[in-house]
Amino acid sequence: MSMGVPLLAGAGALPEQRMREACMALAEGLGQRLQHHGVGESPQQLLSEIKPDSLVRLSGDPARPLQQGGNWLEALADWRRPLLLLVLGEPGGGIAGAAAAYTALCRELGVPLVGLIQIGGDWDIQQRRRDGLPWCGWIPAASHPDHDLAVDGLVQDLRRSTIRARAKAVG
Q1: Secondary structure of residue 126 in the 3-state scheme
Q2: Which of 112, 115, 136, 145 is such that its CA lies 20 to 30 A from the CA of 22?
């Protein structure tokens, strides 16, 4: 897997404000500047210009077909750019089937999927373990009392997984 910083995208088109808020919290936790780009932009041009250590948020549905053919997920697979998928959480701890569908699509296309991050809703760790998807963690709403703690834990886990990936690539 590429050692670059994962690109952030939604499992489908997510509400703009919630996606922006979650990505900003993650960027702040990682100490990185966040770049915002839309799915209407050319993947080849953008991926050739951004540095591997840039934190980039893609707004819109990354599986949506592009005018020039293909889609963003196919481009990420071709460029071996790692991806973190954000999934909208629901009250009560549920998630939409898009989480499983996008995970399967990423596997089918060969996208280096780092994992899924639930944004908002209630975090039900038991339910997340049962669904068998590669969850990295949860970013609750900014007003949630566990927001800072959840983001800090997610950032630490992402840093550990990056260190392990680098050691595996070297060793």
Answers
A1: helix
A2: 112
